[in-house]
Amino acid sequence: MRYIIYCDESSSGGVFYSNFYGGALVRADEREGIEAALNAIKAIRNLQGEAKWTKISEYNEAAYIDLVDCFFDLVKANLIKVRIMFTQNINQTKGVADFDAEDEYFKLYYQFLKHAFGLQYCNPECAEDIHVSVYLDDAPDNREKLQRFKYFLSMLSLSKDFRASRVKLLESEITEINSKSHTILQAVDIVLGAMQFRLNDQHKAKPDGQRLRGKRTRAKERVYKHINARIRDIYPGFNIGTSTARLELSHSWEHPYRHWCFTPRQSVRDLTRGKRANK
After folding, report:
1. Contact, 66 vs 230, CB < 8 A?
2. pLDDT tens-digit readout, 189-226
3. At what angle do helices 101-115 and 143-154 cross, to 10 degrees?
4. pTM of this prediction exceeds 0.70
């Protein structure tokens, strides 16, 4: 058995929320069928090239909504598991003077992949090894740090929980890919972009000197609302800005869609960075 996790990252420094990470997990033997279904929608709706959140406008929003529907039909059918992680700016980490953006990028990616999908609960029968491939989009161009990240991520295979569940993360199966060739990853970009758009109040943005919001902003808000409705079809009580509740630890794996508002262990709360302080 092999799973593939497609990973994307967006908006490292938002007004209220930052460090957005998204991932979609699929079975390797189902990947081609999923890609074919998504690509068929792109072809029917004439979505040429790479589908991205930043490309949404009033002219193509209906086509993007169709692509979103196809994606969430697959999520609801449990053919795709989606995880979104982000940090809230009121939680500030200590030692800002020693801040290194690339180190933070890899450390947060490590936490995301270690915990968000609940991989340690994916093989309760332990009847066979489970191999996990990780496909990264837009990794920083620092070969040394990237290689070190791959090494530490692969070492999860030796941790107690992963060994007990027979989950294998091989260093050779952690690689960078071009999102232009992977429609699953393009769909992750759309969902991830929608979340950071809404959480950082970009739906309220108005062009300088204008009284009304721009047409593109309003189109993106409509696509976000459709995505939110599809998630609420899975979780009626879904709250975009908080971690999705779980009654059992295994729900981290079993749920088709989850959010994780990550709070660093060494953080302190600064409420002046929150939405209420900015009203």
Report:
1. no
2. 999 999 999 999 999 988 888 888 999 999 999 999 99
3. 20
4. yes
